[in-house]
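Before surveying the methods themselves, it helps to consider a single example record, giving the amino acid sequence and backbone structure tokens:
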Amino acid sequence: MRPISLAAGFLMVMAGSAQQPPRPPNLVLANDRIELTILGTGGTLSRLTLRGEEPVSPLATIGHFLALDGFGAPSDQERAAGMPFHGEASKQVAKVKASQSSGPLRSVVLEIALPLAQETLTRTVEMRDGENVVYITSDLESAVGVDRPISWAEHATIGPPFLEKGKTVVDMPALNCRVRPFKPGPIPGRLVYERDFEWPMAPTNDRGQADLRLVPDQNWLDLASCQMDPKRKLEFVTALQLDKHLLFGYVFRQEDYPWLMSWMNYTGDNRAARGMEFSTQPFDVSHAETVAMSPLFGTPTFRWLPAKAKIRTRFLLFYTKVPEGFTRIDDVTLEGGKLTIVDRSGQRLVLAAAQGLF
């Protein structure tokens, strides 16, 4: 890769060759604590590391990409019109509209056009010196003169070496959940299809239960979606690496993303991934199927995009070392410029987080 622009905390890297059309530049946004790589295609968050530490990224090979306007397979009619799996956003070029590479605030503003959906996404990614936090604000604008339901998922995934059998724990304030059927493949599923349960204990085919917080020792492939606690204004999901004492997580607004789908692709190799996909809907299915199932557990399963209007979502992600003895995250709160992480052991970790989400 050949660097084409370098500044104190912002790097653009050109990928590609003379024989092939060049891919859009990748971006690296960094402060004194963390470094984040953003792909020029779709604005996918592909790599996150701690400055001055062993370069272990929690993100899987596919990274954290945006499924918009579509989550999962399109309908037959959408497919015939050219709509891809998981919508257009992750396949489109992300144009850099503005950037700030020096000073206490580092940022980049990306614009992604969705021509089939006739929508435009503007995505602002920010980080501040002295913080282990990345703030992401997204504005979606419709060019259509009618209100419509949309499908929007932040397809966040963790993978090896951060994801490790028996050594990675996922926590979130979820309530009611449902197991999703899927097409059988080379890796079996252990959960009972279309069965409802309360997080985190899911019914298994051997009439037992599985704690979905834990990455199992065996290879399984399962999908389950959970209703985030509707009493909370801010939700969270965390992944704790027990051996490396690393914690990766998200905080997001319940009004934006009331659902989280767990894609548990435990292949036992470098393809392994654990999806922590917070979204407007429970499952990765077509628009029509999503609308038809609403509400589920008393929670809507889609969001409206009004005619010729914009809607906004906001969330943050964080990555940090944690003290020894952290085993289970019971709560994450954002208040007064502080991100407070509470472990089941009674220990607390407080990170600086100057920006709120409201």
User: Anything to note?
Assistant: Helices lie at 76-80, 287-292. The first helix runs from residue 76 to 80.
